[in-house]
Amino acid sequence: YQRRVRESDLDVALTNLFSVQFRLGMFDPYSEQPYRQINASAINSNKHQELALEAAKQGIVLLKNTGNILPLDKTVIKTIALLGPNADATNTLQGNYFGHAPFLISPYEAFTSYSNVHYEKGCDISSSDI
Fold first, then answer.
1. The whole model's pTM is what?
2. CA-CA distance, 39 to 41, in Å (whole number)?
């Protein structure tokens, strides 16, 4: 038994955890929890898809657009190279969301519908290959 974590650190972490859970109403009676009143018909509704699209559009941040290359011009860009294991991954797109996504489109799939794509996976995300 090695004491690598101080009890005071656990106290702080648990206080933060339970404080957030209390603020979210996770310990309130079921009838008082507004998010538990949402039924399955709300999942993937047109209204929510539109809201998700708008949130995605507003969340995109372009750090640098040298030469105004974006958005890509289909008449000029004929081939796109995608490199790395996440270019054709859909599990990674979900992050820590464990619901049932109605559809997932990898960057590879998206760009394939746009242009000719050359894809190389490279090394695995969790391997020791360098």
1. 0.55
2. 6
